[in-house]
Amino acid sequence: MLAVGLNRVKNVAFPVASTVVKHIEGVERVDNRIQVLPPSPMEDEIRLATYRKIYGNSALSPYSLRTVPLIHIIVGHRNVTLDGVVANQMVNQIAENASEDRAWCVFGYK
Asked: Which of 71, 93, 94 is closest to 81 using CA atoms?
């Protein structure tokens, strides 16, 4: 499965993305599930706080050293979804715990 994560997507990405992927050798069909999320300053704050919490952790900071970080933070309707690849279950749990702590990061309470 190929997953493409985009922070801000304009409507032009819908036809372009599916057209490009259809022409890759070996692709039999395209299941286009790209969602355009409306801009939200609150969700931007949640995304930034989650980013800082995850990549501020010494176990997770190496995952941010690439051009495209290996852990993608998706915020939609004030819900955080993490998508990506980590080395093992322990690192996965650390990332999940960090994302669950986002409420106190953004709002200043535990």
From this structure: 71
